[in-house]
Amino acid sequence: MFDALSSVGGPAAYVIVGLLAALEASAFVGLFIPGELALLSGGYIAHQNNAGLGIMMGAAALGAIVGDSVGYEIGRHLGPGLQRSRLGAKVGRERWRRAEAYLASNGGRAILGGRFIGVLRALVPAIAGATGMPYRRFLFWNAAGALVWAPGMVFAGYTAGSSYRRVEHYAGQAGLLLLGLGATVASVVLVGRLIARHPDQVRSVVVRQLERPRLAALTNRYRNRLHFLADRFRPGNALGLALTVQLAVLTAIGWILGSLIQDVVGGDDSVRIDVPVARYLAAHRVGWLTTTMSDLTVLGSSTVLIALVAVVGIVVRRRTDRWSVMTNLLLGLGGAIVLCDLIKPLVGRARPQIGAIVAVAPGYAFPSAHTTQTTAVAVTLAMLSAAAMDRWSRKVAVWCAAVVVCLVVGFSRLYLGVHWTTDVLAGYALGSAWAWIVLLATRTSRHAVAPRAIDTAASAA
């Protein structure tokens, strides 16, 4: 498409790009053809010196404003009948419903925010007109969004310029890697949304799993000890589901970590995936993705995590007058660093030496320190944040964010060739286990101190 448009220039180019931007909302073209494509093409034309960049930006913005205004007028005149028309039926009832809900919950800001979402960009103007939003209010938010979105897309196309072929080549070479990472992140988000929307069903599944014969037998066997912990973790209450789940999760993580250590030391089953994965990643490295991963992997460095812990701890201290968050985060991060330093020389595993060296990391490989530290801090933050929230959906969102950050840091270590797959998996297990231990220990000790303080005060009285 870019090659075909490169021959177009002058006034014709401005008219074509502006018209395509206008058609997106006025004729709902954006539902079927991404409006960004036309604006990126306009930027490419400007890069070929066949059009002026500033004029192209202005034409794109004007077209976007006019097109949305036409869409507004269509909605104002046709009203709800638009959704029942042949075109409205092709749009689909669910799309209309979502756009209406978005506009109802966000008001004028929906015009601005919807500008950056393809489906909303095409439907929201018509819905705003149909629902009677004053045109002056609509025009304000419409222009604000168009003046950011349209010139931005044109400039992006201009910046890419003739390098689009190189980008296409690199994207194709790294496509499977990005597809795999994107699919993993998308899976986390989708599972998180599923859990957020069905809390009762999730709780029911957890309860059923805990009632399995082996877990039930284990709980009965150590019931007295679990009651002892529960009384301190949640004074005055019997053994609750939360503590049982946490102990079950901790046990499972410990078993996974132990299995990984055993396999790495003995060269058993799980390590068989290490060499194939390392070879594949080494064969599919590209410059821009290597640079990106080098930047992202810094998120798991001690320096960044220490700074994060300090900032979060101080902010919470100023707002709540409590040091408990800082204490938990410091114990989580500090313990993760110490554990890695202790385990690495005991296992003594060499780092990968496959393909070109794109990053250098000193010391042994197992476990991945970046992954362990990131997981410990992310899990600690997720548990503390979720405990302070009332809404189930927000709790799930926090956990999803923590998982995504851990996945990205872990993948960056694999991509850069400084760790084997089992190093990263062990980092996830070790960091998670340590975070759970720290939270259980600090909460238990905190609740154990409270009764003693009350007894002392009563005796003094």
Percentage of residues in DSSP E strands: under 5%
Question: Count of DSSP E strands?
Answer: 0
Radius of gyration from CA coordinates: 28 Å
Relative helix content: over 70%
Concise account of the structure shown:
The chain is built from 23 helices and no strands. The protein is mainly α and 461 residues long. It has 2 domains: 2-171, no CATH class; 174-453, no CATH class.
Give an overview in words.
The chain is mainly α and 461 residues long. The protein has 2 domains: 2-171, no CATH class; 174-453, no CATH class. It is 80% helix and 0% strand. It has helices at residues 2-5, 10-26, 35-47, 53-78, 81-84, 86-91, 93-106, 109-114, 118-130, 135-160, 164-173, 175-197, 199-210, 213-221, 223-233, 241-266, 274-283, 287-297, 302-320, 324-347, 369-387, 392-415, 421-460. The longest helix has 40 residues, at 421-460. The protein is globular.
Please name the defining characteristics of this protein:
0% strand, 80% helix, mainly alpha
Question: What is the secondary structure topology, with strand pairs?
Answer:
Layout: H1 2-5, H2 10-26, H3 35-47, H4 53-78, H5 81-84, H6 86-91, H7 93-106, H8 109-114, H9 118-130, H10 135-160, H11 164-173, H12 175-197, H13 199-210, H14 213-221, H15 223-233, H16 241-266, H17 274-283, H18 287-297, H19 302-320, H20 324-347, H21 369-387, H22 392-415, H23 421-460
Helix pairs in contact: 2-3, 2-4, 3-4, 3-10, 4-9, 4-10, 7-9, 12-22, 15-23, 16-23, 18-22, 19-20, 20-21, 20-23, 21-22, 21-23, 22-23
